[in-house]
Design a protein that fits this description.
Blueprint: E1 2-5, E2 9-16, E3 30-36, H1 38-48, E4 53-56, E5 58-59, H2 64-74, E6 83-84, E7 90-97, E8 102-107, H3 119-127, E9 130-133, H4 139-151, E10 155-158, H5 168-171, E11 176-180, H6 181-192, E12 197-201, E13 207-210, E14 216-219, H7 232-243, H8 248-262, H9 275-283
Helix pairs in contact: 1-7, 7-8, 8-9
The structure holds adenosine-5'-diphosphate (ADP).
Keywords: ATP-binding, Carbohydrate metabolism, Cytoplasm, Kinase, Magnesium, Metal-binding, Nucleotide-binding, Potassium, Transferase
GO molecular function: ribokinase activity
Organism: Rhodococcoides corynebacterioides
């Protein structure tokens, strides 16, 4: 069982031939909304990977809230602790041009209200096998969740994204860090050396694992025709947490395959594969 304390956003994606300059108005060629937020994406991926998932987070009182809740429920994520707060849900306003260049504004909205955990939310952390967090919600809450997890024998996974310097406090509470190359570089070897397991995703090259014993292992990713790599890191993290009880090597193998399959279709959490799809990818 996995408890995720994290973000949930609506992505508002406008396509336009060229990105507007400050003060300019351009005509767009298309628009779609799609549910996102690293926390929600990873929750959906972990549920598709077969885990029982409880989501702790917040949506607003706007029209996006219902869709966001439905995304979790539709993926069989337990959303009974999802808070509904006054104000705006988290959104990402994304503009993508014909050269696939983008500009993005993320407004935390309801996610920013997650400054303290209730007794019920803390109980969900204590009862889980794994706690999985990212850094799109207030970091003090991540620290509090991790501390409560540690005190109750729950394994702490952290995907430190968007990356920011981690306090000694937090570094000392993480069992497994899931980072991409940029995050690995930004955090630096000294900080990461304090975490027992570091799993680094390497895009098409798969992933690398450094275990508590210091041994480094490379794990290839199945070769695929990638069409949209958005959310591949989230699919990887959710799958890894779901499969970790089978041991790091088996879990990373599945996470690589799930990440690879997710790049063959559009969307973030929505592109996460099922257990059967991952089995098929691994069978080649
Ligand atoms: P992020 O999106 O966080 O930068 P990565 O790009 O490293 O993360 O992708 C996460 C995982 O998704 C990789 O470890 C890999 O398993 C899979 N993946 C991503 N891009 C590709 C690709 N082009 N081909 C195959 N697998 C991919």
């Amino acid at each position: 069982r996995i408890t995720i304390v994290g973000s949930i956003n609506m992505d508002l994606v406008a396509r336009t031939p060229t990105l507007p300059a400050p003060g300019e108005t351009v005509l767009g060629s298309g628009f779609r909304t799609s549910p996102g937020g690293k926390g929600a994406n990873q929750a959906v991926a972990a549920a598709r990977a077969g885990a029982e998932v409880v989501f702790v987070g917040a949506v607003g009182s706007d029209t996006f809230a219902l869709d966001l809740r439905e995304t979790l429920v539709g993926a069989e994520v337990d959303a009974s602790l999802l808070r509904e707060v006054e104000g705006a849900s988290g959104v990402a306003v994304i503009t993508v041009d014909d050269a696939a260049e983008n500009s993005i504004v993320v407004v935390g909205g309801a996610n920013e209200t997650l400054t303290e955990l209730t007794a019920e939310e803390l109980a969900a952390v204590a009862e889980a096998d794994v706690l999985l967090c990212q850094l799109e919600t207030p970091v003090a809450t991540v620290v509090a969740a991790a501390r409560h997890a540690r005190a109750n024998g729950t394994l702490v996974f952290l995907n430190p994204s968007p990356v920011q310097p981690l306090s000694d406090d937090l570094l000392g509470l993480v069992d497994v860090a899931v980072v991409n190359r940029d995050e690995e570089n930004a955090l630096g070897v000294d900080a990461l050396a304090r975490i027992p397991h570091v799993v680094t995703t390497l895009g098409a090259d798969g992933a690398r694992h450094r275990g508590a014993d210091g041994v480094v292992t490379a794990h290839p990713s199945p070769a695929v025709e990638a069409v949209d790599t958005t959310g591949a890191g989230d699919v990887f993290a959710g799958t890894l947490a779901a499969a970790w009880r089978d041991g790091p090597a088996a879990a990373i193998r599945r996470a690589c395959a799930a990440g690879a399959v997710s790049t063959t279709r559009d969307g973030a959490g929505a592109s996460a594969p099922t257990v059967a799809e991952v089995d098929r990818a691994l069978a080649g």
